[in-house]
Amino acid sequence: MFLYLSKLLPLLFYPLGFACINLFIALVLLAKKPKTSAFFIVFSLILLLVTSNAWISHLVVQSLEWQNLGVADLPAADAIVVLGGGTKSATFPRPGVDLAEQGDRIIYAAQLYRQKKAPTIILSGGRLDWHESITPESTDMAVVLNSFGVPQKAIIEEPNSLNTYQNARNVRKIADKNGIKKLY
């Protein structure tokens, strides 16, 4: 139960979800307190205008991305860790695995591997059982990495974790078991 709440509850606190909650409150208050209702409507509109503005989103992303090191600056490591969330399963109507918005992490891992920054890639990610036939994200990521020329022997899959905490815990177990000390 907690797993499903951890995936769905944050949606209410993203700007769109928060604006929808405010608009619902405005709808409930409309008949009895029209001024308060108007406040919630105006607040929702301002929230959506500010958070959906391209200039604001670029500033927020830039504030995080300046911290990343270039590939040339990275020292060698024992393994590259790729967390789930970067693929969409090969379910109808998709004929194969697709990359999601976060799919650049898989491409970046392939680039690091091909530049010999680490000999192993650990793929961590399962899937919620929304559908019975969906493969774990780690398997989907392996398919994509194989298509980029990363051999299967260089890949370790961890298909059981369903959130970031489980990713970290399970990858730590794999690293300890395989004598891996330094991770990307």
Provide a descriptive summary of the structure in words:
With 184 residues, the chain is mainly alpha-helical. The chain folds into two domains: 7-65, no CATH class; 71-178, 3-Layer(aba) Sandwich (Rossmann fold). Helices cover 48% and strands 9% of the residues. It is built from seven helices and five strands; from the N terminus they run ααααβββαβαβα. β4, α6 and β5 form a beta-alpha-beta unit. The radius of gyration is 21 Å and the shape is elongated. The mean pLDDT is 86.
Task: Record the SSE blueprint.
Elements: H1 2-8, H2 15-29, H3 34-51, H4 54-65, E1 80-83, E2 87-88, E3 98-99, H5 104-114, E4 121-124, H6 137-147, E5 155-158, H7 164-178
Parallel strand pairs: 1-4, 4-5
Antiparallel strand pairs: 2-3
Pfam family, one: DUF218
Domain DUF218: 78-175
Transmembrane segments: 12-31, 38-56
Gyration radius over CA: 21 Å
State the share of residues found in helices, binned by percent: 40-55%
What structural category arises from helix and sheet content?
A: mainly alpha
Approximately how much beta-strand content do the residues carry? 5-15%
Strand order of the largest sheet: 1-4-5
Count helical runs.
7
Terminal CA distance reads 31 Å
* Beta strands, count: 5
Order of helices and strands: HHHHEEEHEHEH
How many domains is the backbone divided into?
2
Let me know the average pLDDT.
86
Q: What is the CATH superfamily label of the largest domain?
A: HUPs
CATH class of the largest domain, named Alpha Beta
CATH architecture of the largest domain: 3-Layer(aba) Sandwich
3D shape: elongated
Question: How would you sum up the major sheet?
Answer: 3 strands, parallel
CATH topology of the largest domain: Rossmann fold
Poorly predicted regions: none
